[in-house]
Amino acid sequence: MRKIVHFTSKDNVAVLLYDMQPGESVSLDGQTICALDEIPYGHKIALCDIAKGGYIYKYGEPVARATEEIRTGQWVHVHNCESIRGLGHR
Amino acid sequence: MKTTFWGYPRPNGTYGVRNHVAVISTADNSNFIARRVSGLIHGTVPLCPCFGRGEIGDDMQLHINMMAGLGSNPNVFAAVVVSLEPVIANKIANIIRQTGKEVRVFTIDECGGSIPCTEQAARAARDLVIEASMVRRVEVGLEHLMLGVECGGSDTTSGLIANPATGLVADRIIDESGTVILSETTEWMGAEPFLLKRASREVGEKIVRAVQWYEDYIKSIGVDLNGFNPAPDNIKGGLSTIEEKAIGSSKKGGSRPIQDMITCGQHPSGKGLYLMDAPTGGVENTTALCAGGCQVVIFTTGKGNPLGNPIVPTIKTTGNIRTIAREWQNIDVDLSGYITKEQSLQEMAEILYEAVLAHADGKLTAAEVLGDLEIAITRIGFTV
User: Fold this and answer.
1) Contacts of A63 in chain B (CB under 8 A)
2) What is the rounded CA–CA span in Å between residue B342 and residue A59?
3) Which residues of A lie inside 8 Å of B (Cβ-Cβ)?
4) Which residues contact B197 (CB under 8 A, 6 or more apart)?
5) Helix (H, G, I), strand (E, B) or coil at A54
6) Is residue A66 within 8 Å of residue A52, measured between CB atoms?
7) What does the alpha-carbon distance between residue B77 and residue B81 come to, in Å, rounded to a whole number?
8) pLDDT digit string (tens) for B238-295?
């Protein structure tokens, strides 16, 4: 069973293929990441600390900007990151 | 490796993978005639649009082109056009006739009401269905196949499994001199690094302008795209932003050079990979792809989406093991081996490629059997 996918070495997030509980660990490329949050199946986990305003990289490209500081092992989703484009309301 | 399919020969040198008699309603005000005729005559398919009356300028032209494009699709043997009045009916019918197929027109106005219109259209449909049944499939190469790629109900598994596997199938069909159309312009937003490097400068400028049009529109109405695209089900499935969705989405177009960008519902002028400037909604987009001439659509999904086009086998595929468990009845091709058996994307693409050719040869799709079929034509402006 494949548990986690990291697309490129530039990516600071990976996609989980199971429901991860806080305190659970997963190994990826020789590194062990411990989940700080409950992270649903198919969602993203931070592989390193990301500063507020920093880019989330997936597929080797910036796909979002952090709206708060994100720590290694945190769930990365709409509660702590946002689009860089398509923000017609601002 | 199989590189042929069995298609129904058409007078203009194209090959259909289905042999439908289409009952085309020209506008919303004659849909009931098309549905009634289809209910009476086994073997017909109703094509019922919303709107069509009181449209103006580019909207009216798009409506005519799209309905005529569906009728001209190689999967249609012949068409019965039903309408309130003859002017729009003949505009649509005359475009379809350029393909050499038989088109019969019946209007409520000329027949004297909806009952005689239904009866006369049904009599014509009866004859055409019998004629259609005598056409035999012949084996032809993939240079005669046009594949449309669409994703709906996407989640993070879409960009991980189903879309890249579809991209590998697209590459293989193009390498066999076939044609592939990738559309959903908003889902190029953020994927430009992957698209522009495969396009000439001139085509690249068209792509950039098309995406800019949507970005400008979003700004002009002052909304946050998030929540609309990605939609709530995409977000629930782990997609956080349009950029993340777009890069995953555009993978289903594969990696071959982009020949040109065409307009919504337009037929490509050559072979290879084309981008179509068409909206992302599943029904609108598959309608545009099929009006452009695609005989087969691969429709990737993550969270699930049952939709199919009425005249084109719409092959539903996903790598999401939970969607397969929950909505198995809507899925044609299971790519979850990527997760459960740690199989490669190449292996997933093999499974999908074989399935595309099997469905082209006549195997029915889930959407065809269930009747989860719909069309919709994009609107640009207002009705007058």
Assistant:
1) 190, 240-241, 243-244, 247
2) 20
3) 1-2, 5, 15, 17, 40-44, 56, 58-59, 61-64, 76-78, 81-90
4) none
5) coil
6) yes
7) 13
8) 999 999 999 999 999 999 999 999 999 999 999 999 999 999 999 999 999 999 999 9
Q: Name residues 67-86 of chain B within 8 A of A (Cβ).
A: none
**β-strands B15-16, B4-9: how paired?**
antiparallel
Q: Are strands B4-9 and A81-82 parallel, antiparallel or unpaired?
A: unpaired
Kindly report whether the peptide bond that precedes residue B230 is cis, defined as omega within 30 degrees of 0.
yes
Three-state DSSP class for residue B335 = coil
pLDDT digits (tens, 9 = 90+) for B116-129: 999 999 999 999 99
Closest CA to B285 of B377, B370, B199: B377
- Chain B neighbors of A19, CB-CB under 8 A: none
Nearest CB to A42; choose among B156, B218, B224:
B156
Q: Do B156 and A77 touch (CB under 8 A)?
A: no
How does B167-181 read in b/e, with b if 16+ C-beta sit within 10 Å? bbbbbbbbeeebbbb
φ/ψ of residue B151, rounded to 5:
-130, 145
CA distance B294 to B181: 8
E strand residue ranges, A30-71: 31-34, 44-46, 55-58, 61-66
Asked whether the beta carbons of B296 and B154 are under 8 A apart, the reply is no
All residue ranges of chain A with pLDDT < 70 are: none
Chain Cα centroid distance, residue B122: 27
pTM above 0.90, yes or no: yes
Q: Which of B237, B238, B247 sits opposite A59 (nearest CB)?
A: B247
What are the Cα distances from residue A41, in Å, to A14, A18, A71, B172, B231? Answer: 12, 4, 19, 31, 18
**CB-based contact B157:A42 (threshold 8 Å):** yes
Count helices and strands in chain B by DSSP H and E runs: 16, 14
Query: Cα separation of A7 and A59, whole Å?
Result: 5
Contact criterion met (CB below 8 Å) for A61 and B243: yes
Q: Are B337 and B184 in contact (CB under 8 A)?
A: no
Strand pairing report for B44-47 and B103-107: unpaired
Q: How far is it, in rounded angstroms, from Cα B158 to Cα B319?
A: 7
